[in-house]
Input
Amino acid sequence: MSKTYVIVGGSAAGPKTAAKIRRMAPEAEIIMIQKGKFLSMASCGFPYFVGGVFDDPNQLIATPTGAQRNPQFFSDVKNIKALTSTEVTAIDREKKVVHMRNLETGEEGVQHYDRLMIATGATAIMPNLPGKDLEGVTTLQSMEDAIYLKERLTSGSLKKAVIVGGGLIGIETCEALQLGGVQITVVEMLDQVLSFLDWEMAKHVENHIRSKGSEVITGCGVTEFLGKDGKVIGVKLADGRVLDCDLAVVAIGVRPNSGLAKAAGLEIGSCGGIKVNTFMQTSDRDIYAGGDCVEVTNLVTHQKMTWPMGDAANLEGRVAAQNMVLGNNVEYDGFIGTGICKVFDYVAGSTGLSEKQAKRLGYCNIMTAVQAAPDRPGFMGARPVIIKLVADRTTCRLLGMQAIGTGDVSKRIAIGAMAIHAKMRVFDLVNLDLPYAPPFSPAIDNFIIAAHVLQNKCLGRMEGISSLDVKAKLDAGEVPFLLDVRSPEEFMQMRLGIGEVLIPQEKLRFSRDKLPKDKDKEIIVFCKISLRGYEAYCFLKSWGYTNVRVMEGGILSWPFPREK
Amino acid sequence: MSKTYVIVGGSAAGPKTAAKIRRMAPEAEIIMIQKGKFLSMASCGFPYFVGGVFDDPNQLIATPTGAQRNPQFFSDVKNIKALTSTEVTAIDREKKVVHMRNLETGEEGVQHYDRLMIATGATAIMPNLPGKDLEGVTTLQSMEDAIYLKERLTSGSLKKAVIVGGGLIGIETCEALQLGGVQITVVEMLDQVLSFLDWEMAKHVENHIRSKGSEVITGCGVTEFLGKDGKVIGVKLADGRVLDCDLAVVAIGVRPNSGLAKAAGLEIGSCGGIKVNTFMQTSDRDIYAGGDCVEVTNLVTHQKMTWPMGDAANLEGRVAAQNMVLGNNVEYDGFIGTGICKVFDYVAGSTGLSEKQAKRLGYCNIMTAVQAAPDRPGFMGARPVIIKLVADRTTCRLLGMQAIGTGDVSKRIAIGAMAIHAKMRVFDLVNLDLPYAPPFSPAIDNFIIAAHVLQNKCLGRMEGISSLDVKAKLDAGEVPFLLDVRSPEEFMQMRLGIGEVLIPQEKLRFSRDKLPKDKDKEIIVFCKISLRGYEAYCFLKSWGYTNVRVMEGGILSWPFPREK
Output
């Protein structure tokens, strides 16, 4: 007799589980129960719908060939019974049934299961602040939210908006609304946007957002939404400032929907997500779970965390389905923490640990390298990419990588993600055979160059200092000898103006009298990307200077205001 | 006392070695001797210069900040003495000197070395055919060649050209000249272009080239260049055909320039390249070598081969330099065989072994998977990518990957290259955490979906057949039941017309009477990309059909003419 599979949730992990069960068990009964109106919603696409990349919301639920993924589609094509606007209110594990209610008709029902999948997702967090129920205060989580934002944008009723939260969704929403002509302020409580980046990398992203005309305020929370006639007219910040606006989009994160599982007595993890093993099985052997509502393992830190990402949800659903049908036979080991975000014509991505995360986790012997370079030869229209690598100094294993810039960041993050998945060490990365041709990369790919910098540091062939640490020194009143080795023409066009001395690299050998007399004087040397800076460093060391460092990534990695 | 380093060759491996030696040994004497006129020539950029992506040839020798890499630059900036138009005629290993001659003045000289680097590169092969010395018969190897082609193209004197050889440079040159309005025929002796691809993948590339207006002839060699008044007017093929033309570009490969090393008694490998160990050291401990003139190890096959690629040359030079200065301390283990080629708005790439190469090498138990899918969601402007994976069935280790299409192929090849470098197995690839956001990939990246297909085949959950094997069956007169499960609308727009029966996937369960009565009848099922095809396969298997296979990659992977 064929089994009955019930799936609670119809967004990402749910439909993937249902479809995979169907392929594994063509005769089984499969019922998918979705609380919302829509199924298989590509919610990651909301900002692009709002921003006008496309205008038909049906594209968000379309298959690659254009079919709409509605209950009829699931029934006809996949023989899956899909109920929408239907909430599962309780799981009776003893009787192996779920209780449900149709949210439109109020009708209640009971459904038996042999195996149950919980894919209830997560809910956007709305802070309990005064004014949160005003019209115009919204999240961007549902199709309804997306349509509301798009209508506000296209109706012309929107002049100023505040985005509360500078994470992935906040930044993507900023881009969408800004491109629609709205004056935007992003307010982030932390001291930077995109917390998967290190501070100095995030500052470049903030600078880019500002260059597009939006405002970014960091290190300041929101205390109140101000209203008039029931509509939002402003946002009050913790420092007392008031930002006028006619829309406030709150994007400060999500909370796993684990209440149903908890009420049924299933184990819940310390982050509030449902506990599952690597088979995606909960503490009840007949109940599996996946997607934003569960906790999975970070393969770098070995910690259990929620990881509310669309790609992970699909992979988890695929694993759960195979195990639900055949018994536990395939595993989802976990994620490494890869994220990417388009920011206008800039891209910011990260995989594994940032330096900040690694330090917070107690890695005390880490090594970093920052490298800035064009992503292909100049004659092919080079665009810059800044890469930061984070490695464990003891094992030389790569722990994390960040990349930002207008160049091809996505490929470099993918390369870094593979290196971290495969637990590769710095020395495994210096001679990679990557796809090289002028339209795609420089002769030595940016990722490999970054690995070379890290290797040089590992082998003691280069001592580096981050732009952040240089700034901190200056702010603390220190006066290192700052040496810019670019050409006078470059210096005229762009310069830091932090007291640096200009000695072009080719003049350096003949200008030793311009260098400090004291061989122990601290010298910090740089150029545009610090390749010439590194060459100058080598000369200085050979002349007996003992305290020389290269400012890694050069002027391109300087996230602070420049003189010019 | 500081050492003297002599580098023979100034294109890629040579300048990289010289620059790295300078960083390792700031006080050393470094002399780089180049036979040609130009240094650090980005020869991979020639096709893009010819094709008009940029017009100033100086960009090919410019640093990222625009400085020209001429002898003055090397002297001023890097304190490297660079001699151009100077040929090293002999190496006297006993006296540790090289003999050289200035090709412009005829002046001869002798230069002592403590350590010598041989980076003499390779020479484009010109077959010894009648007419090879006619004006208009050329290779594309030197700056002079590139300028000649560009002048011919811009002067309007060029109407028809024949490209002899369908490898990377041949295809890139085809694109360059075709975009300039020249009528092109590519003639390839093998039965396909781009030999790093399997036949059926190459056929897609050939179809794309033809769709741009160029002709491609495979399986036919050239026997003669026909001339009039000393100028080429045609190319004669082995089958007797004559192609009129006023230019013939020969791009059939390169031969390592190992003569100098051989004459000095250094060991030469079986492919004609200089033998080196992983330190890039020749059989003489004071002589190192790198770049197109050496043999290095293919890390997948463990065979020594020449690998004349610009990226490898740079990496080898960097390793050689470190060992020349400090004694052997870092290694270049080898390459895995990664290549990529822009073909108009199409990209073709490969890493590791193709199926054909694997079979030729005696891997008898290999497994492949072909998968076609959009490279991002439809609403973000999806473009197709076809991926083929090749794995060892016994170890499940990935041996190779190919990708073609108008989508982001470069990223997927980079991912595959990392998997091969790290010796990852199919099961390591099914749950990768890659950078996902709608502008960059579908929720499950194309590479991961391809790994899923391979996993399904590994686990016996899917049996596949390539479009190539389907065609072979039909050509042999077999009549399998061919089942297309797309919609009638899709069928009207595009179809193979090979006798297939259309039963839309959603009708299949109610159309069992249209299927063969004989449960052992061979059935081959497909759709556009064979995702629905796979679902139909699962149904058919569950109904007791014993001989069902999915045509992998679906209609998108069919490289032969279609009815519509």
The radius of gyration of chain A is 27 Å. The longest strand of chain A covers residues 366-374.
